[in-house]
Amino acid sequence: MENARTKNRKWIILAAAAVLVIALAAAVLLLLGGAGLSARYDDVETILEGCDPALSVSSSVGDDGEILLRFTREDVYWYARKYGLMDRVRWDLTRAGVSAGGFRIADGELTVYARCRALGLFPLSYKAVMDVRWENGLVLSARNVFLGRRIELPRGRWPSFFQDSFVIGADTLSPLLTDAFLEGDSLVLVHAGLRSAAPDTLPVDRSVLTAVQILGVGLDDPDGILSFLLSLPDDTIPMAEAREVYYAAEDPLSAMARLLSLTDPDILPTLWSGADPFTREMLVAPLLRSASELRSALSAGLSAEQAKYEKILSAIRESYKSGGLSLAETGFVSVSTGQPLDPGALTSLSVTATDCRVVLLRSSFGDGEICTGDMPPVSEISRSGKNVMAGRLDEEAVYDLGVALSTSSGIPLLIYRRGDGALILREIGEAVFVSLLVERSNPVVDVDALPIPARSYLRAAGEGWSGAVLLTMHVYSHPQG
């Protein structure tokens, strides 16, 4: 009996020791694996709360023309939620018995942290260093798995959810993706680019190009796009040649956006409309947005420059109509000061009295080419001398006023108001311009005798004008200056 009691006591002690060992081991494992787990991976909800809804994935062009899309952690979480991947990941982890987990991208590595129960009892924490690659989809597979922070496990001891790769299929993202890798704190997806989906040709906006050349705004050409477009024999852009230009630029995507900003704006919304949603959102939308911003900035610059011509012409015509100008032998003088009219003082245009001339205008055809409805007869205009312009003017006729000047890009223009109220910026050529500048008497110009324009381009005009028309003598094929 005593022996039986002794044996029972030994078994009880052994059992208690075993339980104690197991408890101690569990405690060690819990401390080893579970302490501070949440501090090691990203807090998704906190990050998403602070995300800017207008965030944009950064992109660059590779050596072969492919586009590298760099997703920061904010980008990854934002788009994972948008494309429904976040819910899928959570479901897969829950189904695999993971009660908590997350990941972090840092120093070119993706580390996954997860907590699950060993033998259904003990909550253990695991860390896995993942490989990222593209195999007809984004593939994440464990390279090394650790219990807690430091105990590396053999593959046979890995939890089941680390045994298989996690795959996001190409159909979920884009069939045009070709590679994936980690770089610093970003996930990089490599896209084949927009070559395959780009049209063979695009229509250039010749009206904007001509305004750029004549008004001298936007002539800077850091990427060669402007020179390329101006060298085209017609209004069609061959995209195969255009790609060679913008891919050779220091910033190909900016150069591409600049080219698109100088094409017919009506065509832009239809470009790459057949591309997959991922490509449209990540590549097409930012590209078209950049093109639109460049176009708006250029249009604003052109309008601001054009407003200077509107101002100088309006000021001179209003002064003439109100009796503020007097006709002299070689020009106009101010009635109030007796000083010669200096058109350059009326605007911020870089013109002076020696390279700008106010002229009287008439039209042989009388078809409304000039605006005489608001002008007084010449007989009502004061003269600086009794015989000023005698025999050169029809005293009963009504003349308009125009201004001959040279733009900042060196293009000679005659600006005047048409009968319908439109501002006319008319190229007159060097010979006509010089003849007006050197004429000793006050020039009288018959607009119907000027060189016939080769092209006419409509432009918006400022307040008080019904529009603007740019008349050119030829189609420009190279930058002026």
Tally the beta strands. 21
What is the topology, as strand order, of the major beta sheet? 19-15-16-17-18-21-20
Proportion of β residues? 25-35%
Helix/strand-derived category reads alpha+beta
Shape: elongated
Largest sheet: 7 strands, mixed
Ends: how far apart? 119 Å
Low-confidence stretches: 11-36, 477-481
The percent range for helix content is 25-40%
Mean pLDDT: 84
Q: How large, in whole angstroms, is the Cα Rg?
A: 38 Å
Task: Provide a descriptive summary of the structure in words.
The chain has about 475 residues and is an alpha+beta fold. About 30% of the residues lie in helices and about 25% in strands. The strands form five sheets. It has a seven-stranded mixed β-sheet. Strands 3, 4, 5, 6, 7 and 8 form a six-stranded antiparallel β-sheet that branches. Strands 1-2-10-9 form a four-stranded antiparallel β-sheet. The longest helix is centred in the middle third of the chain and has 45 residues, at about 275-320.
Descriptive key words:
481 residues; alpha+beta; 6-stranded antiparallel beta sheet; 11 helices; 21 strands; 25% strand; elongated; disordered C terminus
What's the SSE blueprint?
Blueprint: H1 2-34, H2 44-49, E1 58-61, E2 67-71, H3 73-82, H4 85-95, E3 98-106, E4 109-118, E5 122-134, E6 137-147, E7 151-152, H5 160-163, E8 166-169, E9 177-183, E10 186-191, E11 201-203, H6 206-215, H7 225-230, E12 236-238, H8 239-247, H9 252-261, H10 277-321, E13 325-327, E14 332-334, E15 356-362, E16 400-406, E17 412-417, E18 423-427, H11 429-438, E19 444-446, E20 455-459, E21 468-472
Parallel strand pairs: 15-19, 18-21
Antiparallel strand pairs: 1-2, 2-10, 3-4, 4-5, 5-6, 6-7, 6-8, 9-10, 11-12, 13-14, 15-16, 16-17, 17-18, 20-21
